[in-house]
Amino acid sequence: MNRKKLQKQAEALNRSARHFRRPEVECLIRLFHTLVPEAGERRGAAGLDRNAFRSVLHLTFGMTDDMIMDRVFRAFDKDNDSCVSVKEWVEGLSIFLRGTLEEKMKYCFEVYDLNGDGYISREEMFHMLKNSLLKQPTEEDPDEGIKDLVEITLKKMDYDHDGKLSYADFEKAVRDENLLLEAFGPCLPDIKSSMAFEMQAFQETHDL
Amino acid sequence: MGAGVRPALHPLCGETALILVGAMGVTLTRAAQWTSAGSGPGTLEITPLNESLLNEIIKFTEGFHYRHPQEAAFVFREPLEWKTRLDYSVFESGYEISGTTVQSEDKDKDGQPLLLLTASTIRVRSFGELSRLLSVATEKKLKEAQACLEANRDPIVKILGPGYGTVEGEDMSMLRLLEKVKKDDDPETEIKMKISLLLQQLDMQLLNSSLKHISREVRLTPTSVKNEVDLLKHFSGKGEDTVLESLEYTSDYEFSNGCRAPPWRQVHGEICYLIVKPHDTNPLFITCSTAGVFLNGGREKEKDDIEYERKSDIYKDLVTFLRERSPKFLENMAKQEYTFFEEPVHEKQQHLEIVDTEDSGQSQKFYDCSEKNVFEKMKSPPVKGKPIDKKLEPSLKWKDTGLAGSQDAAKKDIKEEKEVRPISHELKKKASIISSGSVKAQSATKRKVSEKSEEASESSSESEEDEEQPERHQEGNTDLPSEYWQIQKLVKYLKGGNQTATVIALCSMRDFNLAQETCQLAIRDVGGLEVLINLLDTEDVKCKIGSLKILKEISQNSQIRRTIADLGGLQIMVKILDSPDKDLKCLAAETIANVAKFKRARRTVRQHGGITRLVGLLDCVSMGLANPTPSQTKDIEIARCGALALWSCSKSTKNKEAIRKAGGIPLLAQLLKSPHVSMLTPVVGTLQECASEPSYRLAIKTERMIENLVKNLSSENQELQMHCASAIFKCAEDEETRDLVRQHGGLQPLATLLSNSENKELLAAVTGAIWKCAISRENVTKFREYKVIETLVGLLTDQPEEVLVNVVGALGECCQEPINRAIIRKCAGIPPLVNLLTGTNQALLVNVTKAVGSCAAEPENMMIIDRLDGVRLLWSLLKNPHPDVQASAAWAICPCIENAKDAGEMVRSFVGGLELIVNLLKSEHKEVLASVCAAITNIAKDEENLAVITDHGVVPLLSRLANTNNDKLRRHLAEAISRCCMWGSNRIAFGETKAVAPLVHYLKSDDTAVHRATAQALYQLSEDPNNCITMHENGVVKLLLGMVGSTDEILQEAAAGCIANIRRLALATEKAKYG
Question: Does any domain span residue B239?
């Protein structure tokens, strides 16, 4: 990719991804192209497919939960074409790494709203929390703990008592207690891996 | 064979011992009173019981070879061996003496002597020899018998062989012996049998007599001791006619059983300890025990530790003991006999109980009471080594234990104690299981004790409220609140959940009211603290934050704090301070601030590098910015949390030092410029806490912190105002600091704050600051402008002592100026001041006497003081035990005498007053001596009084003080001597008591006031020719010649006068010689 094109693209992206500075955007674009070898050259629209993206999440950000990684991919892939484009990559990372609380809440809610109906339902919660407790072999109903946990969560976050979390509920609960931002599973990088990522991604460009 | 003088006395004694121990296994090991304290081989105490037992045994042995000649020849299986005090020279006929070795002429069949004495060790192998030995020993019988018994605890075995040893339980030896006799015809066996029977007979006899003895013996009970002490106190005090000067318990705390001895001494039967000061001997340290009254080893000055070992005979009660010890007591008792004995007699009888009837029941009681508390009791052994409480004040812990109830548990038998031990071990185990099951935090009590001993070095300027909080237990499981079960469930999820579930559980837990003790303890009791602290050690930031948020809340509870510290929570939190996450840092620091409210926690923080890290948090660059970014705001918040934690930590002296070394002072100075109360409170709190250290006081001055402290005196927040005032209070001992306070306009806000008399803590701090600031004259002038003196006088009544001390201190400083003395009089301040002279608080008395003394400098004030009988009150304070009060009272007496009308008459009217003050010249404290000398100078202005004090021996007492380097004492001493020269032959007496030569050397001092006083004294002394000679010999002339040229006219005149006297004497001598 030639330099001029890169700069132009970076300039364009810099408008939508406000949390990065221009050189940083350039770095991310370059990084994107190393992750999508050749592909970008041949098929213009193509980008990171689900598997490639998941391996980035896993290797770079230490995520392990398959379902959550899937959801993160969906959240990045705004146009639902099963492929994260350069634009989606940079914009996604902007929130992922440096988003404001507002942006992160939206992002997380999107991740947790599995069916995209605008609510996180009991079933969705159950689904996301089902592996969160060690199974007690002694208990008769192994899911009882999970169900209880769901109820606890609803009690805590369901302000309008309709049995499901709207975005308003979610927002209010998170503003009240920031720890609940990732209430249903880690979908944001922790401070260590994001710092490591930024350092690596941006450091390299400085060296260039 | 020696031309030796007297027969030796060993044999009988040895036998006695044998019999006692062997046959009388019961009598001697049980009934005989072996010493209880001290280790190693037991020794027999000389008690009436033991003595009678020994005598009984001696009698038996002495007569043995007449009554049973055959048995007396029987050779022991093994010799009885002991260290004798008999000299070989006492052995005569029947013994072979060569050098220091003595052998009996009687030999066994192998030719071995039956008695052998080498060096001081004696071996005896037959009753015959024992009998002879006893008769040789004559009056040393008893000692020898005792020594033998002590050395041979089971003599039967030695005499007859191991088969006859004392066996607990049924004694089968007789039967065995009988069988043996049947089987063989060996005559020896028969003799053995006879001896054994004889010994057993003696045993019975001894048992009987000791029973008789014991039943005759009366034992003291706590009530009888108390009655006796109360009664004696009634007749004690100063004055000629009392029986004792004073009589005090060593401990104010009385257990519910009436004993005052610590529980581990109560088991030895000890009831309480007394310090008795008779009129005619040194103070006596006395133990009252159930067995009687005796002298103990006293209390060593430094250690405050009583040496419990018995040092005297045992007397049946206190009166008997004191009659023996103090003739004066006896004499004065006789005078009081009527009142003294009339009533108490039958009362006493009621309380004297016969002991053995209760004995068995008592031990049972002891068990019952101690059982549930043995756990605590087990923790107290360190106390045994070195009692911790200064006054031997038992800790609260003991108050709670039923141990106190075991009054009659006071037992002679050490066995008793041993029997209790194993049980307590079991209980201990049980208890630890319970606490690890975390149903009850009994461990808190355990820690308390270990802390005390560990932390002797750490001091705290603030009282530690939570140090002694009683443990609150949840009563049973019946009424557990519903929160308990919910919290238990959440803790289960914390344990078994991944980070997502953990975060949800943590957030949900925060919805409980964590400020409520039920919830706090529920978390602890279901094992939540362990989990929360474990979470701190994970990698997950969210879990750590969630956990800290909970810990921060519940660590408001002192029991939780201790558990957190026990679980190693502090170490982890200190590590978290290094985290890059700012929220985490804040929370960790805040939680440390809560937990570090007790010594051990503070030390843990320091030892794990916490202080350095916390000081690091204070470093925030963005402090002064007008519009800080969110991230900068966060930094400021971190600094605030750091300051909070340091504030808690700064209560330990070593931490203060650590903060300073970590460079905390300039950072605190920086933060002190903050406009926010939330920041200022912990910062000023830390500073005022640390201001107890000189290094901080200096730094507060040099880092320009006074300005900000003064500024914040005008804050809206009373807590902040209080800390600022208290920092100034502590720093204003320094003159420059006082000036700085004035220059920064701090005096007015202080004056204004005086009007807020509702908040007593604030008032105490403010009055303290005013007191110290008033040491500077310019400040006093300002205070007068602000009408501070009037306000202070208004605060002389109805205030707590902390406030009064400072108010009176401030008035005392203000009174240094005449105009203020008048102000105090005009606003009726003198009566309340004089009234305070009757108080007991030592600090307050020092200040009140100073203030009254300063007021007395004004004749008009003096009239009021005199009318209120203030001088008598001052005079009676000379009797106060504390030297500071004595000195301060004596100083205050000086202006009173100077300014009172008819001072001489007034002084004479105090009965015993002059003797009292003269006797204070025996004090060991320089300040007391100087003040008393000054007072004597004033008293001696009245000739009649001078005559009286001369009679009381003032001259030798003053002379005795002459060899001193203390210029203050020198000056007042010289003045006193100079005054006292005015009566009779005192001049000559001073010369005879060798006061003159040291005085001459005072002239070499650097202090001109000393020169003046000394020259005057020398002038007076030089009226006596012998003194002139002494002075001349000590080179006085040269020294005085220099002083004749002084600008001080009084000095000049005195020096010249003295030289003139010496010169005249020289001329006269010459004239006599040659003329």
Answer: yes
